[in-house]
Amino acid sequence: MDKKSIERRRQQAVAKWEELQKSPIPFIYIGAGSCGLAAGAADTQSAVEEYLRRKGLNARIVQVGCIGPCYLEPLMDVQMPGQPRISYSNVTAKDVAYILNGFFENGEITKSRLAGHFGDGDLDGIPRFFDLPMLKPQVRIVLRNCGLIDPEDVDHYLARDGYKGFEKSLSMTWREVLDTVKRSGIRGRGGAGFPTWRKWATCRETESDQRYLICNADEGDPGAFMNRSLIEGDPHAVLEGMLIAAYTIGASQGYVYIRAEYPLAIKRLKKAIAQMREMGLLGQNILGSDFSFDIKIKQGAGAFVCGEETALIASIEGKRGMPRTRPPFPAIAGLKGQPTIINNVETLGTLPNILRNGAEWYAGYGTDTSKGTKTFSLVGKVRRTGLIEVPLGITLREVIYDIGGGTQKPFKAVQSGGPSGGCLSEEFLDLPIDYEHLAEVGAIMGSGGLIVVDSDTCIVDMAKYFMGFTQKESCGKCVPCRVGTRHMVEILEKVCDGKADLSDLDKLEKLGHTVKNGSLCGLGATAPNPALSSLKYFRSEFISHVKDKRCPAVTCKNLVVYRVIAGKCTGCQRCVKVCPTGAITGPRSEPHNLDQSKCIKCRSCYEICRFDAIAGDAIIIES
Amino acid sequence: MSEDGLTTIGQEFKGERGDLIPILQRAQDLYGYLRPDAIRMISRWLKISENEIFGVATFFAQFRFHPPGQHHIKICLGTACHVKGGEQILTIATHRLGVGAGETTADGKYDLDRVACLGCCALAPVVAFDDKIYSQMSVLKIQRILDGQKID
Ligand SMILES: Cc1cc2nc3c(=O)[nH]c(=O)nc-3n(C[C@H](O)[C@H](O)[C@H](O)COP(=O)(O)O)c2cc1C
Ligand code: FES
């Protein structure tokens, strides 16, 4: 395909897209990202199919990716001819008939479960979807298509200016593209925030006839899913970004290194790559230019450290995924010793927008040093969880309260940057989110994981959790990381068990600095961050564990006990049935007994008593 | 059948060193785990010692060296799931199945594993039962799921 024919294809796609907006048959969109599916979207879709069949109705069902507010999943949108698309939330299979009856039987908009509409202006007092509190403060650039288009239909992407950014770059020299990326100010979204243009320049300027581009979709931060959502919801955006990057750095072979835990994302990528090939967007002389490029998918095999550039390369080469010392940096000597650029999914997915709309437009968002927008996975104890995209410089408070709706129990901390990041207390809520401010206080932006916790979460336990994670994922090559992280875990376990003394906290701190300074790669060099930041900002909680042998959040297993309050227990036996160890006994209608020696502190009795029993709160957990 | 399946896989690759991990992944898809005879074949074919192949394979969490159970239960212990009580869900599963994470029940029916994030963190805690993902789990729901699965 050459430039003319892609333009023709795009015009057809636009016509198809517009027809879809004005379609004479109704459309029903199902949010079928991994999160939607986990919430039951497949059952919802079957119920829709069944409904249409039963009523003999003609409507089309389209699966879309995640639009962001995962807490509203499963989402189902209904678009009747001549009406805007209207979104319904938490639609389980049993809600389908009721919602669709409104439209198909009564000819009106069903009001229950309504989330918002996607039209312009007012519609019967229904809010616009993008005016919902979770969405209004957001700026959707890289996520612009997610949840709106069918990710498996390349025409949808084309109709929304897909591949225009790449075409624009083909009409420029590589230096001009590089300069555009430089002026846009975009920095790597994978964690370190290195200016994208700078490593590209190094790579391009290194003499070689074979350069490689790798898209890093390893997404190792446990508790973050920005990259998964983007690939599932708009795979072509990432692939178009790869074309732009490859053209600029002069790469002829690209790889997507993606974790095997993301089967849906892998499927969508494979499909999208096949569509590109069919349209001549991959292969020799792309769009009639002298640029040739191809993309292969490599599935990660489950090692966090393989998100690190040199370890990732080792793993693609078929070796143990161990990092090596840098320099030489991969931009100079990477895959098979050749100049290699590794960019994160989101960095790449943003590029088409920068090329299409211009560097200055993009640089108009963000702060002086941190330009543009960033996606975050906002999870944990906030009310509105999901995937968001915000301009950099926005404060943590705006994200957690305006977008996330705050927490139910009192806010305690927000953890940014995953196992490499830090845990920040309430006093930092007005901190602007950008690379510099977060680093200054001992956290990092990382790839965009934001985990909010409330008074029910124990900070020491969370530090132990992260430390345990990095310890297990340490590749073992260097001593500070291999041995140091293990000792740090042991100290934290002692604290959680109430067996530590104050000198252990000093040891923890000292050891943390040694591991930070002595480790070979970023894994070890950042592994102590969660522990060190927690120790700094939540010292009193550590002290409670050490001195009073108490866990204020009532979380640490060995410091809590479960008790039945005899005066409140009605003897309904619900807890007796649910206790997996038989620790609770007692005849009906008499207060039950809890045998501490058998209790494994699994919380089942507590939950059933609170939600399902007659008394309601006859079981308490104390520390 | 073993040799045939592997030979077919072999034809998809050039036989380069970089193909090692994808080939191991395909072999595991085929047999459910890395069988010693499969490793031997791959070793001969890629001219990499078995020792080295084991070295690579044991590095990665994905590879298994024992036959899998009939059902695979994965309890997510990513950060989001951890702070929402994933640990207690694992405690119950461990207790009910009588095996720890990473083990298979004696009757070969269930594999129990802890995983670090299934990408549905906004709906934590999450548990995968074979290919089906259950979100917003609780200590009570996991008991019900385990009960249900035991019946069939
Ligand atoms: C232990 C470790 C894990 C990492 N995991 C990831 C990851 O999952 N995804 C990612 O894009 N970058 C990850 N990185 C950062 C990469 O090494 C690299 O900086 C990044 O992919 C570069 O892309 P960018 O410049 O577009 O951000 C990790 C780094 C370390 C040290
Ligand atoms: S932390 Fe469990 S799904 Fe991400």
What descriptive keywords fit this protein?
heterodimer; A: 623 residues; alpha/beta; Glutaredoxin; Rossmann fold; Ubiquitin-like (UB roll); five-stranded mixed β-sheet; 24 helices; B: 152 residues; alpha+beta; 2 domains; 13% strand; binds flavin mononucleotide; binds FE2/S2 (inorganic) cluster
CATH-derived topology of the largest domain in chain B: Glutaredoxin
- Can you tell me the CATH superfamily of the largest domain in chain A? NADH-ubiquinone oxidoreductase 51kDa subunit
CATH C-level of the largest domain in chain A? Alpha Beta
Strand content of chain B: 5-15%
End-to-end separation of chain A in angstroms reads 69 Å
Describe this structure in words.
The complex is a heterodimer of chains A (623) and B (152). Chain A is of the alpha/beta class and 623 residues long. In chain A, 40% of the residues lie in helices and 14% in strands. A 5-stranded mixed beta sheet of chain A has the order 2-1-3-4-5, with helices on one face. In chain A, strands 11-10-14-12-13 form a 5-stranded mixed beta sheet. In chain A, strands 8-7-6-9 form a 4-stranded parallel beta sheet, with helices on both faces. In chain A, a hairpin with a 5-residue loop joins β12 (411-416) and β13 (422-425). The termini of chain A are far apart. The mean pLDDT of chain A is 95. By secondary structure, chain B is an alpha+beta fold. Chain B has 2 domains: 4-59, no CATH class; 71-146, Glutaredoxin (3-Layer(aba) Sandwich). In chain B, a hairpin with a 2-residue loop joins β4 (127-129) and β5 (132-134). In chain B, α1 (2-11) runs antiparallel to α2 (20-31), α2 packs antiparallel against α3 and α6 (86-97) runs parallel beside α7. Chains A and B meet through α2, β8, β10, β14 and α17 of A and α2, α4, α5, α6 and α7 of B. The complex binds flavin mononucleotide and FE2/S2 (inorganic) cluster. Residues 188-192, 194, 196, 216, 218-220, 304-305, 307-309, 342-344, 347, 447, 521-523 of chain A line the site of flavin mononucleotide.
